[in-house]
């Protein structure tokens, strides 16, 4: 298989401006670059180019946390207030019970999509965590999985408090410098010293108007930009004991929460990592999205294989899926399941009808002439940032609907949770959106 040719073909098919594919297997690194860093400038992507890794940063933050566990400084089962006495949420009882383990597993239950910019100073993270005092509790700690960016910012604040230095400095001192990650940047000021990718939005993809999300979300994924080789070097360090002891790594990768496939994530969640079970093999990984950039990491310890894809726009998910399918079939005889598509099943959507919302999105499910619709409206900080979207939904699997038409190359699943004899309590799209009572609409 000629990966370089396949990368170019698939990038053209999925309208991805630029990408780097990195593979570690059989004791060797292989990297392939194609496209441009910025369609406005036409600068070519090279294998040493830096792309933002977005939420892939969460596995780096998890690694920093597990170093503290290994040192006996951090106990995952003690309340967050053990380390941050002033930690507050709208639900004080929940805030008192949430542990670091809840944060790592996305089961803390409070509103996690808070993207407030608290500045570029060393106090950005502390100020951000202080703002969470008004964040509502969506469900009780440990009850459900719901992807939580804010939770990882709290975790980052614990890390910098225990180290008595800013989170970004912890990255440099504990990982970037010891592992000699010379093609890694923690902000735009550093990234500009390298060949750095610019995110692209829209169809056809155009350069995004901003480069990065606020520094206040650094532990969740707003800071790091890396080359494919540096990402692979980090993953290799986990397997060789350069960062954590083997027993600590096994603990980090132990499943803590089984997931429904309809959540759009893996089969389970460990301490900071997604877990996938495919063809009897276990794969660990994480994806990341920022402003027009998407990153994907998959690691198969039993085969000593790691695969990373860094992209800057277009239909990144199907590009990754097709490339990973080729790589894993060739190197490990693993066949990935296909991406979800509409099926011919039927369902009674009555339990799903209604309005669900979090701090950024409101989704109303309706039925008109036997057609099911979802109307999505930005709210809160994002109110007015985009017009409402109206999407046709079709039956999928039990308690799930799926978009009739793909967006960014994929069909999106809407999963519903709650009493099977009554209306759904939550609409789950990776985040659990609670049903809004009619009296509050």
Keywords:
Beta-lactam/transpept-like, Lipocalin, 2 domains, alpha+beta, Beta-lactam-related, globular, 8-stranded antiparallel sheet, 441 residues, AmpC-like, 23% strand, Beta-lactamase
Structural notes for this entry:
The chain is α+β, with helices and mostly antiparallel strands and 441 residues long. The chain folds into two domains: 12-339, DD-peptidase/beta-lactamase superfamily (Beta-lactamase), CATH 3.40.710.10; 350-440, Lipocalin (Beta Barrel), CATH 2.40.128.50. Helices cover 25% and strands 23% of the residues. The chain has helices at 3-13, 57-70, 92-97, 100-105, 124-131, 149-163, 167-176, 188-191, 228-240, 246-252, 316-332; strands spanning 18-25, 28-35, 51-52, 184-185, 200-201, 206-207, 225-226, 257-258, 268-269, 274-278, 281-289, 294-300, 305-311, 354-357, 361-368, 371-378, 389-395, 400-403, 413-417, 426-428, 432-434. The strands form four sheets. It has an eight-stranded antiparallel sheet with strand order 2-1-13-12-11-10-9-8, sandwiched between helices. It has an eight-stranded antiparallel sheet with strand order 14-15-16-17-18-19-20-21, with no helix packed on it. A hairpin with a 3-residue loop joins strand 20 and strand 21. The longest helix is centred in the last third of the chain and has 17 residues, at 316-332. The radius of gyration is 21 Å and the shape is globular. It starts with a helix and ends in a 7-residue tail after the last strand.
């Amino acid at each position: 298989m000629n990966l370089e040719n396949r990368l170019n073909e698939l990038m053209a098919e999925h309208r991805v401006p630029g990408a780097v594919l990195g593979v570690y297997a059989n004791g060797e690194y292989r990297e392939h670059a194609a496209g441009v860093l910025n369609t406005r400038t036409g600068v070519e992507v090279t294998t040493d180019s830096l792309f933002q890794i977005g939420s892939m940063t969460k596995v780096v933050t998890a690694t920093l946390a597990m170093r503290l566990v290994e040192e006996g400084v951090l106990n995952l089962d003690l309340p967050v207030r053990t380390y941050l006495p002033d930690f507050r949420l709208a639900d004080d009882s929940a805030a008192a019970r949430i542990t670091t383990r809840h944060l790592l597993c996305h089961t803390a239950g409070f509103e996690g999509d808070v993207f407030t910019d608290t500045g570029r100073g060393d106090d950005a993270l502390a100020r951000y965590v202080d703002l969470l005092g008004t964040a509502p509790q969506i469900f009780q700690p440990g009850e459900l999985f719901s992807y939580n960016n804010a939770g990882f910012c709290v975790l980052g604040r614990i890390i910098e408090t225990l180290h008595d230095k800013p989170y970004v400095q912890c990255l440099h001192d504990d990982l970037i410098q010891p592992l000699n990650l010379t093609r890694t940047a923690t902000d735009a000021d550093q990234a500009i010293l390298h060949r750095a990718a610019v995110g692209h939005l829209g169809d056809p993809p155009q350069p995004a108007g901003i480069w990065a999300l606020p520094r206040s979300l650094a532990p969740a994924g707003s800071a790091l930009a890396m080359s494919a080789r540096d990402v692979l070097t980090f993953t290799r360090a986990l397997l060789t004991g350069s960062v954590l002891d083997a027993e600590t790594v096994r603990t980090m990768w132990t499943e803590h929460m089984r997931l429904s496939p309809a959540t759009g994530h893996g089969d389970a969640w460990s301490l900071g990592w997604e877990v996938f079970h495919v063809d009897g093999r276990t794969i660990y990984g994480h994806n990341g999205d920022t402003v027009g950039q998407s990153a994907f990491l998959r690691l198969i310890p039993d085969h000593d294989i790691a695969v990373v894809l860094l992209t800057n726009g277009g239909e990144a998910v199907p590009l990754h899926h097709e490339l990973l399918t080729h790589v894993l079939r060739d190197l490990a005889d693993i066949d990935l399941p296909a991406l979800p598509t509409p099926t011919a099943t039927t369902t009674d959507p009555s339990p799903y009808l209604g309005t669900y919302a979090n701090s950024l999105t409101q989704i109303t499910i309706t039925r008109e002439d036997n057609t099911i619709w979802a109307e999505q409206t930005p709210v809160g900080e994002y109110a007015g940032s985009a017009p409402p979207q109206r999407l046709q939904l079709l039956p999928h699997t039990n308690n799930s609907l799926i978009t009739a038409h793909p967006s960014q190359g994929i069909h999106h699943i809407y999963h519903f949770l709650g009493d099977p004899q009554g209306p759904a309590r939550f609409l789950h799209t990776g985040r659990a959106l609670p049903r809004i009572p009619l009296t509050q609409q």
